């Protein structure tokens, strides 16, 4: 929904008129104000406003003010909301390719992930959104999920055998744990701390900022930087709203979105580093040099189950071959 605003008042100056928004785009985010994804879209908004002389504005609504991710994606598809920032995980049921590119151990590092998304493969993925009334504008960093537990350092696949890990209620996550010889225990995020503390589970998996902010580092001091899952974040726009913009304004939005990804990734990297330093200072033991070869090889049955078409197989192969 494009909102036209900015009434011309008697006596206003030219500078004031330039600051009035002719078009206001509403953008949703579930994260709180100040979070890297929110600040990324704010950076995009600032650039768009500057380059359009104040004609086009983006208003960011953080903290799920407009709804949770799946709801706001649907509203964006229908043009009720103009833009949404959401995890690829929330698009799995809408755009199938998002599940393929979010498989375990698909990326060697976060740099590898960025190389994939910023190149031809990223452009291909973006085209798949158009058939679902969405325009993909920017790929943000959602961090890398790694294992942590209360029992011992994990350096090999064998170290995981028989251990109980909390995972999200997601078939890929459950199958990943099974392939590694561990036991998946889906449960609400809020129950993880007490479940580790009382021995109901041995550990969980997430990124450093979540490991820190949740307090899980207090009860599970062994963190293994295996980076088994990297799920991209996406800034998408309603196709209906997009088509109401002039080609010139569309070009401005694309460029600003691309630049905002650089801002967001830097903020995320800073947040990861700060959280890592904090948990290490409080006594967490981080295992960094993990040989992922055996972990990757263990994913064969997972890939066989979820990568079933020739197109998906080719995509996985090209991602793995990206330097």
Give me a quick take on this structure.
This protein is α/β, with parallel strands linked by helices.
Would you mind describing this structure in some detail?
With 323 residues, the chain is an alpha/beta fold. It folds into two domains: 14-94 and 132-141 and 232-273, D-Maltodextrin-Binding Protein, domain 2 (3-Layer(aba) Sandwich), CATH 3.40.190.170; 144-230 and 275-321, D-Maltodextrin-Binding Protein, domain 2. Helix content is 43%, strand content 19%. It has 14 helices and eleven strands. The protein has helices at 14-19, 36-51, 69-77, 97-100, 110-117, 120-130, 171-179, 192-197, 208-213, 239-243, 247-281, 293-297, 300-306, 310-321; strands spanning 23-28, 56-61, 83-87, 134-140, 144-149, 164-167, 183-186, 203-206, 222-230, 233-238, 285-287. Helix 2 runs antiparallel to helix 11 and helix 7 runs antiparallel to helix 13. The chain is globular and about 60 Å long. The two termini are 40 Å apart. Residues 4-18 have low confidence and may be disordered. Keywords: Periplasm, Signal. One of its GO terms (cellular component) is outer membrane-bounded periplasmic space. GO terms for molecular function: carbohydrate binding. Pfam families: DctP. Residues 1-18 form the signal peptide.
């Amino acid at each position: 929904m494009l909102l036209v605003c900015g009434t011309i008042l008697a006596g206003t100056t030219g500078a004031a008129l330039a600051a009035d928004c002719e078009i206001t785009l509403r953008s949703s985010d579930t994260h709180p104000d100040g979070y890297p994804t929110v600040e990324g879209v704010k950076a995009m908004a600032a650039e768009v406003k500057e380059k359009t002389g104040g004609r086009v504005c983006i208003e960011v609504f953080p903290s799920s003010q407009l709804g949770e991710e799946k709801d706001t994606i649907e509203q964006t598809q229908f043009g009720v909301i103009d833009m949404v920032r959401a995890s690829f995980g929330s698009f799995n049921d809408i755009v199938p390719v998002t599940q393929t590119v979010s498989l375990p151990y698909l990326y060697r590092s976060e740099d590898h992930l960025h190389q994939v998304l910023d190149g031809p493969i990223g452009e291909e993925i973006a085209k798949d959104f158009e058939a679902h009334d969405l325009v993909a504008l920017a790929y943000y960093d959602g961090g890398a999920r790694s294992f942590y537990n209360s029992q011992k350092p994990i350096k090999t696949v064998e170290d995981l055998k028989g251990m109980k890990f909390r995972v999200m209620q997601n078939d890929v996550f459950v199958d990943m744990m099974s392939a590694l010889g561990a036991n998946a225990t889906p449960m609400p995020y809020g129950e993880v701390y007490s479940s580790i503390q009382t021995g109901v589970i041995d550990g969980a998996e997430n990124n450093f900022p979540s490991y820190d902010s949740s307090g899980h580092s207090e009860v599970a001091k062994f963190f293994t930087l295996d980076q088994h899952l990297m799920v991209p974040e996406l800034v998408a726009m309603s196709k209906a709203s997009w088509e109401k913009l002039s080609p010139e304004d569309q070009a401005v939005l694309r460029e600003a979105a691309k630049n905002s990804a650089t801002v967001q990734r830097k903020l995320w990297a800073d947040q990861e580093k700060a959280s890592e330093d904090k948990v290490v200072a409080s006594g967490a033991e981080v295992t960094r040099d993990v040989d992922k070869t055996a972990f990757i090889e263990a994913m064969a049955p997972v890939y066989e189950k979820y990568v079933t078409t020739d197109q998906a197989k080719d995509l996985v192969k090209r991602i793995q071959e990206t330097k």
